[in-house]
Structures are given as structure tokens and as C-alpha cells.
């Protein structure tokens, strides 16, 4: 910056003001400084400036695995918002590190990030404590817990599930199954609870044998639907905890000889890009990743210069998207209603 000031014939403080858009510099001087900046292709040392001020303008983004189709759109939107708000992001994948989230958080601490968005369903408590100890605020996904420096973005699946139940009811379905997430995880418990709530609201019976655990992955969906379809009285339609589970269930059902959308109906959750590419295309509950990314960004911006203030709860709702993996129920003659 000293060289820029010398070439423009001004002080370094004037160069700094021009670079940051201060109105305190007259236009003639500002134009002269900008010309020198452009000619020299000057790039400021943002990290050094951040270390001096204590504000790096960097947010950390912790995800499970970038190869999961759920995450790329969120990362893209997060980066777009960062550009709007003159911030940078540092992305870290838990599955790519030997010690998981612990390694991810240590990397973010090294860079003195201003806040961390944690997009994993089961964050490591010790790693979160490390962030708190360093006065770095966080925003978590669907944990429904708030605290000093801790906000949360909840996914409200009820609107979409209620729409889905009514839709299945109109198609003649009475026996509805569910393939959930990993047992014990908070997000899995929430989604299972939302499914049961929507089931009861529509007047359907809750049958424990129709509710199976999955793992949010294709393999879990495939294993669970095989258990459901070999029951003496199997469900005619199945909700799943996410689209990856639904895709696994869809493929497994087809391998078992079922025509998805005719013999069995399947509904996913997320509306990832692949949902439109399956055969048949997947009916699902759409979760807007752009809205989610903006909610995470807003949650971190909320803390500002108050990293230890009590966080806020944000909510993103789902909605039903009808495609071809659902269709009218095949009802056997003399079959009793499960209501």
C-alpha cells in the first residue's frame, strides 16, 4: 500500500479510504488512486488485515461430504451470498478428514473465521465446545437448540408431509410406511415425529412395523424397503427421510420386481437434482437450498460484534413436488382399510 500511496502522491490512509469506498476522499483524488490500483493490480492482504482487526470476514462451512448431491447447491448459494456481503467462505468436508469434524474445526480455528455454519446432522460436541471457547459463533442444522453464540436452522417438513399425506389419500393409499435416518440422531427423531404427526392428521393408522430406520444413504433405503415389502401386509406407499434414501428404495423395489408408481409409491425429501433423473422421476418434498443457505448466512451475520449473544431459531419449510414415483394404490379385493 505504501507504493500505491507514493505513486498516487497521497498518504497510505487515503489509499485505504479509497479502497474501502470512503466518501471522505474527493473524487479527483479517488480517481487518481483507483487508476494506480488498477495499473498495479493491487490485491490487499485480507488475512493480515483481519488478524490485526480481529475480523477476517471469513465464514467456515462444515459439511459431511461434497459428493452428496444435497450439498453442492448450498455451497454455491453460500458463496454467492458471501460475494454480496463482502465475505469469503472456507469449506471443509468432515468425511475427508481422518478425525472428522475435529480436524475440520481445527483448520477453521487456524484461519480465525468469524463464524461457522455446521451442516451435519450429528455434530461433534467437543468440536463445538472448541468453537465456543474461541468465541466463534455457530449455526447448526435442525438441532432445535439455542445458546450463547449458537443459532439453529430448522427444517419444517410438516407442510410438505401433510400435503403428501392428503395426496396419497386421494390416490387411495391407506397403508403408509416410512424409512428414516440414523437411529438416535436428533434430525432423525424430528423427521420421524413429523411423519407420525402428518399420518395421524390425515387419519391414517400408525403401524410400527411400517416404520424402519435407514442411514440417509442409498444403501439404507435399499435395505429398509426390502424389509417392508416382504411383510405379509406391506405398505402401498412409503415416505423417506431424504432423496438418497428414496433413490435406494426405488432401485431395490425395482430389483424385487415392483413397478414404482404402480405397485408401490415412494416419496423422497430434499428435491436434489437427481430426483428428476430417476426412472420413474421421484415425487419428493422440496427443501429450498438457496433459502437454507441464506438462513445460515443470516444466522451468522446476526451475531456481528456480539459472538456470545443468544442465537436465534430460523426455519425453512418443505413443499410437495409431484412426479412419477407415486400413483393410485392397488387395492386387493376384500382388503380392509387400515384407518
From TrEMBL:
The keyword Transport does not apply. One of its GO terms (molecular function) is DNA-binding transcription factor activity. Residues 1-53 form the HTH lacI-type domain. InterPro entries: HTH_LacI, LacI/GalR-like_sensor, Lambda_DNA-bd_dom_sf, Peripla_BP_I. The keyword Transcription regulation applies. It holds the Pfam family LacI. Keywords: DNA-binding, Repressor, Transcription, Transcription regulation. This is LacI family transcriptional regulator.
Amino acid at each position: 500500500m505504501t507504493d500505491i500511496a507514493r505513486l498516487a502522491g497521497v498518504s497510505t490512509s487515503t489509499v485505504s479510504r479509497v479502497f474501502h469506498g470512503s466518501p471522505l476522499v474527493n473524487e479527483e483524488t479517488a480517481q487518481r488512486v483507483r487508476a494506480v490500483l488498477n495499473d498495479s493490480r493491487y490485491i490487499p492482504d485480507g488475512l493480515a488485515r483481519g488478524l490485526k482487526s480481529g475480523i477476517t470476514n471469513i465464514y467456515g462451512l462444515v459439511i459431511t461430504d461434497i459428493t452428496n448431491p444435497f450439498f453442492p447447491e448450498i455451497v454455491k448459494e453460500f458463496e454467492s451470498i458471501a460475494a454480496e456481503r463482502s465475505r469469503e467462505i472456507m469449506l471443509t468436508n468432515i468425511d475427508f478428514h481422518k478425525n472428522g469434524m475435529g480436524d475440520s474445526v481445527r483448520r477453521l480455528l487456524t484461519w480465525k473465521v468469524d463464524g461457522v455454519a455446521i451442516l451435519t446432522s450429528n455434530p461433534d460436541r467437543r468440536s463445538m465446545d472448541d468453537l465456543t471457547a474461541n468465541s466463534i459463533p455457530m449455526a447448526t442444522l435442525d438441532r432445535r437448540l439455542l445458546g450463547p453464540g449458537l443459532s439453529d436452522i430448522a427444517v419444517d417438513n410438516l407442510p410438505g408431509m401433510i400435503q403428501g399425506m392428503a395426496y396419497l389419500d386421494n390416490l387411495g393409499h391407506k397403508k403408509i410406511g416410512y424409512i428414516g435416518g440414523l437411529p438416535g440422531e436428533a434430525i432423525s427423531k424430528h423427521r420421524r415425529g413429523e411423519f407420525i404427526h402428518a399420518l395421524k392428521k390425515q387419519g391414517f393408522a400408525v403401524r410400527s412395523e411400517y416404520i424402519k430406520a435407514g442411514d440417509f444413504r442409498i444403501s439404507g433405503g435399499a435395505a429398509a424397503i426390502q424389509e417392508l415389502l416382504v411383510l405379509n401386509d406391506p405398505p402401498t406407499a412409503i415416505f423417506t427421510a431424504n432423496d438418497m434414501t428414496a433413490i435406494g428404495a426405488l432401485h431395490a423395489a425395482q430389483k424385487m420386481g415392483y413397478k414404482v408408481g404402480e405397485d408401490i409409491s415412494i416419496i423422497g425429501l430434499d428435491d436434489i437434482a437427481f430426483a428428476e433423473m430417476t426412472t420413474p422421476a421421484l415425487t419428493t418434498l422440496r427443501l429450498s437450498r438457496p433459502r437454507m443457505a441464506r438462513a445460515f448466512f443470516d444466522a451468522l451475520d446476526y451475531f456481528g460484534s456480539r459472538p456470545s449473544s443468544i442465537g436465534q431459531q430460523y426455519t425453512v419449510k418443505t413443499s410437495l413436488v409431484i412426479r412419477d414415483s407415486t400413483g393410485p394404490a392397488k387395492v386387493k379385493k376384500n382388503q380392509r382399510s387400515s384407518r
